[in-house]
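ENTRY TYPE: protein
WANTED: fold as tokens:
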Amino acid sequence: MRICFISPYPPQKGGISIYTERLVTNLRNSKVNVEVIGSNTFIFFNIFNYIRKNKPDILRVEYAISMYGFSSLWIYLNLFFIKIFFKNIKVTTNLHEIAREIEILGFIARIYYYIFLKVFDRIYVHTQEGKNKLINKCHVKKNIIKIIPHGTYQFKNKTFLKKEIEDKYRLKNKKVILYFGYITSSKGIEYLISATNKLVKNEKKIADNTLTIIAGCVRQRKGFFKIFGNKDKKYLESLKNDVGKNNLEEHIKFLGFIEDKYVYSLFKRAKLVILPYNSAEQSGVLNLALATNKVVIATKTGGLKESLKDIGILIPKQNSQILFKEIVGLLKNQSKIDEVEHKYKKIVQKENSSKINQILINDFEKILKTK
């Protein structure tokens, strides 16, 4: 079986790049022949000729509108002609943000995906919500949609640089409440700031021994999507102003971009990981937290509520009061943290990357048998 991916790929940064690298590595370890056309390479602009020369059995596009922008038209045209001239090649895609995109872009996204997805033999999504939106909003045939969860994260290096990050970020003797990821208004970070403010005002003893860390930066965007990048920069400034206005500088730190070598250690050092999202398709950050066995408080949205529905701590979105109460309840009760951490092992076992890898291989084999 020969598979060709079209996707962002390291050294290109971003969650989808990391996701694809992990998937490709696992497939290669399973003796599957895999090639990658990176979205920042010259080959990307000559996809048709590359496919003509290499003739893979399956072509898979890791996709989100924000990732490719107007280059999506170029991808569509290449796939359209591949479908015409190479009928034996199965063309597939994995939609990373379909539910969120339909929610934000509305009718435009519905029409766009109705047309764009016509060229695919198989459409993968990470959540039931994503599948439902494709069927009900974009009128995609349900028999070509397959749900395959994100899978747990695999760290390349599990060296715990405890002293180094404590010195670098001044974390010594502090229990860390961690937000990690891109800074954008859909992430609801203002509710974490508000919850921290309530912690300082109402639980001084706990507040004096904790530090809320906001680790991440504004995503770099190109072309038309720079509009959203400018909006995100204003959002970050408003968050910092909110911290200053409420005199929370000693309790909340903005760390900006985190080097790869410190990511594992930062999660290991955290006491709690907070996902206060207003909307989410799936979360790579959740999988980072699960991989380091950290307790997560997440909002009931998208794939978060699907992954954590049985054994996670889920709260309503946009509710800093409930978030505050959950944080206090956990920090006052170590046995509850221990209990949740133990339960999370069930999720890790269920969504183990090797299991997800085998599910994908089985489905590839299945679609290759269809005419």
Summary: The longest helix spans residues 226-245. The chain is about 50% helix and 15% strand. The chain has a mean pLDDT of 90.
